[in-house]
Amino acid sequence: MPKLLTSLAILYFLVLVKSHGKTKILRNNYAISIHDMVKLIDYEHQLLDILQNFTNALQQRVDAIEYYLYTTDYEAEKKLPDDPIKSFRIIRRLHSDYLNWKWLMEQQPWEPLVKHIIAIAPHMPTLKDIEEAFNGLRLIQWTYSLPTAQMAEGVLQNIHHNTSLDAMQCLTIARHLVKLKEFIRAKEWLMVGLQMHEADEDNEVFYSQLGMPLSDFYELFAEIHDELGTRYLAMSELRLAIKNWPERVSLQRALSRLKVNIRIGKEPAKAKEKSEGVYNKCCSTECRPSAKLHCLYNTTASYFLRLAPLKMELLSLDPYMVLFHDVVSDKDITSIRNLAKGGLVRAVTVTKDGSYEEDPARTTKGTWLVENSKLIQRLSQLAQDMTNLDIRDADPFQVLNYGIGGYYGTHFDFLADTEMGNFSNRIATAVFYLSDVPQGGATIFPKLGLSVFPKKGSALLWYNLDHKGDGDNRTAHSACPTIVGSRWVMTKWINEREQLFRRPCLTTL
Ligand SMILES: *[C@@H]1O[C@H](CO)[C@@H](O)[C@H](O)[C@H]1NC(C)=O
Ligand SMILES: *[C@@H]1O[C@H](CO)[C@@H](O)[C@H](O)[C@H]1NC(C)=O
Ligand SMILES: *[C@@H]1O[C@H](CO)[C@@H](O)[C@H](O)[C@H]1NC(C)=O
Ligand SMILES: *[C@@H]1O[C@H](CO)[C@@H](O)[C@H](O)[C@H]1NC(C)=O
Ligand SMILES: *[C@@H]1O[C@H](CO)[C@@H](O)[C@H](O)[C@H]1NC(C)=O
């Protein structure tokens, strides 16, 4: 696998390291691959099962105790006993029932359940997982301009998904937005959450038990309005909150902070600009640069295709870019995904000093398919037939599965001169789509104003180098955040060294 090793050496290159390498940074990373969320669903079932059995155990006791209280008729027996039967009843109860109840109260029949709930602790998502899941939602929201209230109701791009967020989830999102200093968005999420909480007033104990009492909402409200400079509004709400929950010192502290900020006239926070990886409209609707290009069967790319032509859609002549339809069968896709599933690890980049670093602009997990099975040989042949390039000098197939709002920031597949050393550059890239993605997940080429939405079994092919063999900057591309679905793709990078005779000159381009 020398190819794989050479790739690892290259700066800013996508690499996938084996999970035993750097276990510390490559923990579960649940939010980074939809496939790996399967495990979480199992853990949640276990938790609910534990709680259900715990409830049953408690309920049995409650029933027994209630029945006891009912049969003793203790209200009536409070008076001094005046008959021997009553006296006997009391003496017997206090002699023997007392011991039984004492024993029962000391017993913890749910101890196995406690053990079980402790046992699953190492598998629970971490703060980092929440942050990543939150980042996914945040990215989806602003890439596709989704209104907060709709999103909270589970309406994404006008499609109603039957899952909504609750007050606590909205508060969590608002808190993370505050951390990022995105106060206006934070306010929207907080207000939606506050409304939901107030509609559910009767269950305040439940919210407190789960660590999100209503007073927390008011505290965050004050913090956000403090930052936005609407401090008198913050103050009146805080005063009301303090009246309601006088015991909460954090509210008092918030009020003191507020007063100080009013006195010193602290500047409100600057409205934050949208930042990283701004996506264009081609993430939401399919963009095609020219209507003149058309679909055709390519029978000339290789001898094979003269016998079995591929359905080919020409997307761009310069740089050359085509979309093949129905090139990988469902059966092969299932096999590929099964091959990849065991080995999915987070995409990382190599830093200058050679260490691995997670890149927030690459929220995906992947693996290389290095074995040389019949399936891989068949797929390699397919890549060769599609491109008419010699794929002996190519990286192994790489399979990626994306997570919540998973995306891949804008990048080139070719290497800059400075990065090249003695490596062979990536002349072409073939991306095979291994799943349909119901919403989002387009591959976009911002400079070409072109986007391709994943369709299971299709493949996108383009040349990264121009006719002189230099990197073509117009091939800058990225994967838009996936909104709904599990986005699976497989990539083949084909290198130029072996292509001297197959693509000797393309001077006409
Ligand atoms: C819960 O109780 C059921 C039925 O008694 C049992 O099969 C199951 O294993 C229990 N689950 C846990 C997590 O203890
Ligand atoms: C939501 O539920 C309704 C009614 O059960 C159903 O018609 C609709 O297809 C569901 N929406 C999604 C996105 O599953
Ligand atoms: C068919 O594909 C080959 C290789 O990709 C390309 O050189 C050729 O121009 C294509 N034919 C047509 C008609 O587009
Ligand atoms: C490239 O290959 C040449 C000759 O084999 C060697 O002298 C040179 O050090 C190599 N450069 C790099 C960057 O590996
Ligand atoms: C391509 O991009 C690189 C880096 O972004 C830049 O240095 C180079 O000048 C660009 N080339 C062209 C032809 O625009």
Describe the model.
The model is unreliable at 1-26 and 503-509 (pLDDT under 50). Helices cover 42% and strands 16% of the residues. Helix 7 (167-179) packs antiparallel against helix 8, helix 8 (183-199) runs antiparallel to helix 10 (214-228) and helix 10 runs antiparallel to helix 11. By secondary structure, the protein is an alpha+beta fold. It is built from 16 helices and 19 strands. The chain folds into 3 domains: 1-124, no CATH class; 146-275, Serine Threonine Protein Phosphatase 5, Tetratricopeptide repeat, CATH 1.25.40; 278-495, Jelly Rolls, CATH 2.60.120.620. The protein has helices at 2-8, 37-72, 84-106, 111-119, 127-143, 148-153, 167-179, 183-199, 204-209, 214-228, 231-244, 249-264, 303-307, 330-341, 374-387, 417-420, and strands at residues 14-16, 155-156, 159-160, 295-298, 310-316, 321-325, 345-350, 356-358, 364-369, 397-402, 408-411, 426-433, 439-440, 443-445, 450-452, 459-463, 477-479, 482-484, 488-495. Residues 298, 300-301, 314, 387-388 line the site of one 2-acetamido-2-deoxy-beta-D-glucopyranose (NAG). Keywords: Dioxygenase, Endoplasmic reticulum, Glycoprotein, Iron, Metal-binding, Oxidoreductase, Signal, Vitamin C.
